From TrEMBL:
SUPFAM superfamilies: UDP-Glycosyltransferase/glycogen phosphorylase (SSF53756)
One term of GO molecular function: transferase activity
Organism of provenance: Azorhizobium caulinodans (strain ATCC 43989 / DSM 5975 / JCM 20966 / LMG 6465 / NBRC 14845 / NCIMB 13405 / ORS 571)
Keyword DNA damage: no
Name of the protein in its database record: Putative glycosyltransferase
């Protein structure tokens, strides 16, 4: 069996992240201990953070899962063990980091001993994991960089970037999900590993969901956050009153100008396995991003999932879109989305869209990554 992994990531099952897609496949022939998130910002005394702290406390006590009830386990093998550690979420505090090194290190080593795990590879998808580097008897350190933490919403940027710089300096391998992220670590041992796709899940025909409205549908799934161009969407929805604009996912920004329109529907989160049924029955799938540093560095999973479904796509341009731009009705950020939606609705070449990502499955991505891990 290949070297075991101790993975510091987000809460297992909270959302279908690239780390979880990869690790669920690596777990087929490696012993994996998954350590749930130890936080990238100081908690605030608001309702959302208090609810999250309560959920964390229940997970630590072993009385409840840390993922939302609407989210199922990710597909594929799960880690052998999942640990919700007791930790201090206070990036930038050297005192908190010193305490976490002892506190988290002791908890992780105890579970490692129970699993019979020795000399693992320490995998960090969050810079806050730098606090335990060297405390686990690890044989190597891998930093999986899937986001621009200097621009990511909900992060204490300055202290987290300092943690990231320290983590990158001691990493034996940096895995970057996009070219802009890889460029930040020039001169180091970097593996550019774009996101994959669960091709069979999204390409296999599914029944139309009962709650999907009739008529032409332009749809989006994912976090409805401040990286979406709400003004652009409002203008498109007003210009296309016969269309239905459908959004699936948690709403994390002000959507009142959009929600007030009669042809707009917010359906809330859906399990990842249910998403193909929606996107396959939309007339056009949307990626209406603003132009931000975070978006310029991102490599959204939905891009390849949309293509695997065969559904036409209308999107704003960003670097990760470039290899597929010939298959997508793309406009510059801030432009008029209406003509792109109309053009995409006439595009029937679903076979070409599917073929473009048929060889980009998560299994292939994980195999390439596994070879890089074995070479450490």
């Amino acid at each position: 069996m290949s070297a075991p992994l101790v993975v510091f990531g987000e809460d297992w099952g909270a959302h279908p992240s690239s780390t979880q897609h990869l690790v669920s496949r690596l777990a087929a022939d490696r012993s994996v201990l998954w350590v749930n998130s130890i936080g990238l910002r100081r908690p605030r005394l608001d309702a959302r953070d208090l609810a999250r702290l309560l959920a964390k406390a229940r997970a630590i006590a072993g009385r409840a899962p840390s993922r939302p009830a609407s989210m199922p386990e990710p597909e594929g093998p799960r880690p052998a063990r999942i640990l919700s550690p007791l930790a201090i979420p206070w990036p930038g505090s050297r005192l908190a980091e010193a305490v976490n090194r002892r506190l988290i290190g002791r908890q992780v080593r105890r579970v490692m001993a129970e699993m019979g795990m020795e000399r693992p590879i320490l995998w960090a998808s969050l810079p806050s994991a730098v606090s335990v580097v060297g405390a686990l008897g690890e044989r190597a350190v891998v930093y999986y960089c899937g986001d621009d933490f200097g621009a990511l919403t909900g992060v204490d940027h300055a202290p987290v970037l300092e943690l990231e710089a320290r983590l990158a300096a001691c990493a034996d391998l940096i895995v970057a999900a996009s070219a802009p992220l890889a460029e930040r670590f020039a001169g180091r041992n970097v593996l550019l590993l774009p996101h994959g796709v669960d091709y069979d899940l999204f390409a296999t025909p599914c029944a139309r969901p009962a709650d999907l409205p009739e008529g032409p549908v332009a749809g989006f799934y994912g976090s409805v956050s401040d990286w979406l161009d709400i003004g652009m969407l409002v203008r498109a929805a007003r210009a296309l009153p016969d269309w239905r604009f459908v959004f699936i996912g948690p709403v994390q920004t002000d959507v009142s100008p959009l929600a007030g329109l009669p042809n707009v529907r917010f359906l809330g989160p859906r399990p990842h396995t249910a998403l193909p049924g929606y996107v396959q029955h939309w007339d056009v799938a949307l990626i209406p991003f603003r132009d931000t540093p975070q978006i310029r560095a991102c490599n959204p999973l939905k891009l390849r999932e949309y293509l695997a479904s065969g559904t036409p796509v209308a999107a704003t341009r960003f670097p990760a879109l470039t290899p597929y731009e010939g298959l997508i009705h793309a406009i510059d950020p801030g432009g008029d989305l209406t003509p792109a939606i109309r053009g995409a609705a006439q595009d029937r070449d679903g076979i070409a869209r599917k073929a473009a990502v048929a060889a980009e499955g998560w299994d292939a991505r994980a195999a390439r990554l596994s070879a890089a891990l074995d070479a450490l």
